[in-house]
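User: Fold this one for me? It's Cell division protein ZapA.
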Amino acid sequence: MSDIQVISLLGQDYSFRIAADEAVLFQQAADLLQQKLADTKARHHGSGHTELLVATALSLCVPLVRQTEQLQDAEQRLADLVGMLESPIDR
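Assistant: Here's what I get for Cell division protein ZapA.
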């Protein structure tokens, strides 16, 4: 079952059909987005809505890119460790 969730961003309402079991997660994401938009708006006085949305989206993507890089590095280290454990040890 899904519900309609409405969020207001920069004076515009947006409706989303959200699965009932994801409603809390959606609200948390909407709250985070609204806070990031407010932060961006405070730093970029006079910017239009589109510029604010783009700047906010980029600020949210930077940590995701970093996390992806860290995850890939960790996966490579694990693969290297597994490879070391699987290869015969010279004695």
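One thing worth pointing out: The CA atoms of residues 9 and 77 lie 42 Å apart.
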